[in-house]
Amino acid sequence: MSLASIDRERMLGRIRELGEVGRKDGRLTRLAGSDADRAGRDLLVSWLEGAGLEVKIDRIGNIFGIWTEVPIADEAPVLLGSHIDTVINAGIYDGCYGVIAGLEVIETLKRNGFAPSRPIAVAAFTNEEGVRYAPDMMGSLVHAGGLSVEAALASVGTDGSVLGEELSRIGYAGDVEPGFLRPKAYVELHVEQGPVLEREGLRIGAVETLQGISWQRVTISGVANHAGTTPMSMRSDAGQAAAEVMVFLRQRAMASNIPVVATIGCMAFEPNAINVIPSLASFTVDLRSPDEQRLREEEAALAAFLDALALRDGFGVSVERLARFQPVTFDPAILALVEQAAGRRGLSSRRMTSGAGHDAQMIARIAPSAMIFVPSRDGISHNPKEHTDADDLVAGADILLDVVRDLSA
Amino acid sequence: MSLASIDRERMLGRIRELGEVGRKDGRLTRLAGSDADRAGRDLLVSWLEGAGLEVKIDRIGNIFGIWTEVPIADEAPVLLGSHIDTVINAGIYDGCYGVIAGLEVIETLKRNGFAPSRPIAVAAFTNEEGVRYAPDMMGSLVHAGGLSVEAALASVGTDGSVLGEELSRIGYAGDVEPGFLRPKAYVELHVEQGPVLEREGLRIGAVETLQGISWQRVTISGVANHAGTTPMSMRSDAGQAAAEVMVFLRQRAMASNIPVVATIGCMAFEPNAINVIPSLASFTVDLRSPDEQRLREEEAALAAFLDALALRDGFGVSVERLARFQPVTFDPAILALVEQAAGRRGLSSRRMTSGAGHDAQMIARIAPSAMIFVPSRDGISHNPKEHTDADDLVAGADILLDVVRDLSA
Q1: Does the N-terminal or the C-terminal CB of chain A have fewer CB atoms within 10 Å?
Q2: Which residue stretches of A231-387 are H helix?
Q3: Strand B280-289 vs strand B261-263: parallel, antiparallel, or unpaired?
Q4: Where among B273, B296, B325 does a domain terminate?
Q5: CATH of residue A113
Q6: Closest approach of chain A CAs to the CA of B322, in angstroms?
Q7: How far, in Å, CA of A101 to CA of A15, rounded?
Q8: What angle do CA B186, B190, B196 make, to 5 degrees?
Q9: Does B350 touch chain A if contact means CB atoms closer than 8 Å?
């Protein structure tokens, strides 16, 4: 079969066009349920309808564009998708790329006279970013049955608004029951939002896992004392204990053969005075790994280290769990199709892990799923500087095209 | 010579009595130049006059009680002293003990018919604590010629008041020129304000050095990045760099054969978000040592470590010097007298370093000086919990008595 390609200019043009919707004073912001979100949805729906797709909106506002034909209407569809809501002062690729490329793939297949064995659909899931309403990845979570639509619609935003009311207001509180579409397979194309592909000079990531996340807050209490009169050997310095924990976690993560990342992002000392030994250090620990067993080992190692600190130096230690998600493993058969497609097109690729959360992790609960990554310049995302080269955007969409054709042949 | 002793009940009674002056709602506060300071000064002067001493007040408000006789009036005096101003919500010993014990020593010598070869004086120096007016140790610094009396009187307080006006208001802007009394020797008795004597079960500290102090603020800048998508090997984590610096400084200080203390008391991360790698860590470094050469080595080691961090990982590093004082070495001859006195009285003792600043470090600029420490329970000071056992207070005063007798025989 010849290596067809998507319509480069149409896809890039749509990404740029959608990237201007909700831009104000140069800043792009399309929070879920906002007027800017409505404008973005309206534009997307016009494209879906223009492509001859059947458009369905469910009760949580997820938008589906479905290509089906009478003989195959009862088959489980191949679903593509991502989201078009954004963070505040966003880039133009995160989410939008996957939705627009999904539409582009369907249009290309239609134009080329491809006869699918099952429907092919593209979805834009509501409130993936979770900036205005919690939780994030909400629309796909509701679709997968992990959250009731009533609970989701009742979510109160950071601005005091209620999501259900806002969806009604902007005309996207649909009447279709969430989860109506049970896919045969789900494939999400996304920018990496990390530096791995760029640093390694690779074009395509076959995302085989999505990291599990462990968030904890650790508070270590020692004894405040005079920085001048208290010898080193008589100190119970909570700040130094925190520093030991930081170095320990970093060294473990650096030395791990299974990918682990450890981040201490928040830190506070008390009394936080130049000449007083800290009596208290409070910090967050963000541990992530694609391997659940390894994540548990890291958590256990932290707990043991804290216990040893308490025993050795008499520190008080308390740990609060803030969040915990198990890793997601994507479907090996779809990943094999991604790698085969990259090989046929002469595009370098690697298996990799997603460090960030995506709608795919929710849909993976109900269907074989996978993700395809393309490089992000400098690994930057959630930022106006977010950038992926046009050639990489086209390459990713072409791989998606090939995979969808294979899945629906 | 028999081992005379000071009047235990009189001295302890005076410490308690002065400790009630300026107490309000249970909290003791006698800031320099305040009404409470006046009341404390009035009480002290009444005791000095009651002991038959000549009272002199200099222009910065330092109070001197001088025991002299016609034949010895031209000899350089032995000077004892400390301060009677306090911090906010203070204990009753810091400073007051040295002044009251100094008076007690003079009264005891007089009562015992001792005929000194030179005058003996006790001083209460103005504004040692520096809580209301900067700098601290002001009265002794002016006495030693390190600060002009005009500059000191012009100091504006944290409450907007001017020290010179406040001293006039409370009647303690004297007319004697500061520095009028040039001592043969200066001895200051003080509570340790640290845990060393108590932990080692010792009664008397012969203070041979007063630590030098180096205060710096270090700011390390790295790159903020996504905590999930950025592999450990691709991070420029300013928080982790700060932790490395902390552990490095602590290990050096712990391993040093010359006493060094290193304290990181203040710490701030930016952006200080749980899922963002810190782009910036800003912290204070408080280094102290009685050995100037060693203090310089520690400063150099920190600078070299920061340079290496910058070179290895591309961190930006900036260092701001906040304060720097050289160590003070006290007079070996006076220290020998302290140790001999302790030995004669069967009191255990050790040579030690003062971690805090004292008037003695200023007077050491113009005369052979030394300090005597007695234990502080749990090392606590600048706090209502400040406590020294009565037996230790008496023991310290008796050692002061012996040393003064030796210096003025």
Answers
A1: N
A2: 238-255, 292-313, 332-344, 359-363
A3: antiparallel
A4: B325
A5: 3.40.630.10
A6: 10
A7: 9
A8: 125
A9: no
Interface contact A270, partner B, CB < 8 A:
no
Residues 43..82 of A with a Cβ closer than 8 Å to B: which?
A: none
For chain B, the straight-line distance linking the first and the last C-alpha, in angstroms and rounded, comes to 12
B218, closest residue in chain A (CA to CA): A274
Dump strand ranges (E) for B23-77.
23-24, 27-28, 54-57, 63-67
Residue of A nearest to B278 (CA): A265
A379: nearest Cα among B310, B244, B316, B233: B233
In this structure, are B73 and B147 located in the same domain? yes
| B233 touching A (Cβ < 8 Å) | yes
Q: What is the pLDDT of residues B3-35, one digit of tens each?
A: 799 999 999 999 999 999 999 999 999 999 999
CA distances from A5 to A81, A192, A319, A340 (A): 19, 22, 53, 16
Q: What value of ipTM does the predicted structure carry?
A: 0.81
Contact criterion met (CB < 8 Å) for A228 and B262: no
**Which of B198, B213, B267 best tests the A interface by mutation, with the highest count of A CBs <10 A?**
B267
pLDDT at B1 over 80: no
The whole-angstrom separation of Cα B95 and Cα B86 is 8
H helix runs in A144-281, sequence order: 149-153, 163-169, 196-200, 238-255
Structure token pair of residue A404: 């969808």
B264 CB within 8 Å of a chain A CB: yes
Q: Do B247 and A250 touch (CB under 8 A)?
A: no
What are the chain B neighbours of A278 within 8 Å (beta carbons)? Answer: 264-265, 267
Name the one residue in this structure whose structure tokens are 């939002």.
Answer: A193
Backbone angles phi, psi at A32, to 5 degrees: -55, 135
Size of interface A-B (CB pairs under 8 A): 203
Contact list, A309 vs chain B (CB under 8 Å): none
Q: How far is Cα A307 from Cα B284, in angstroms, rounded to an integer?
A: 28
Rg (CA), chain B: 24
Q: Which of A229, A277, A377, A381 to mutate to test the interface with B (most CBs of B within 10 A)?
A: A229
A3 within domain boundaries = no
Q: Sort out which chain B residues have CB atoms less than 8 A from A196's CB and list them.
A: 229, 231, 234
Q: In whole angstroms, what is the distance from residue A62 CA to residue A138 CA?
A: 10
Judged by CB atoms closer than 8 Å, whether chains meet at A275 and B269 is answered as no
Which CATH number does the domain housing residue B227 bear? 3.30.70.360
Over the stretch B148-174, which tens digit does the pLDDT of each residue have?
Answer: 999 999 999 989 999 999 999 999 999
Q: Find out whether the peptide bond into A195 is cis, omega within 30 degrees of 0.
A: no
Computed on alpha carbons and rounded to an integer, the radius of gyration of chain A in Å comes to 24
Element (H, E) at B409: none
Among B254, B258, B274, B373, most A C-beta atoms within 10 A, so best to mutate, is B274
Q: Which domain holds residue A31?
A: 8-210+327-408
Which tokens sit at A292?
């659940």
| pLDDT digit string, tens, across residues B266-308 | 999 998 988 889 999 999 999 999 999 999 999 999 999 999 9
Two tokens at A47? Answer: 């494209």
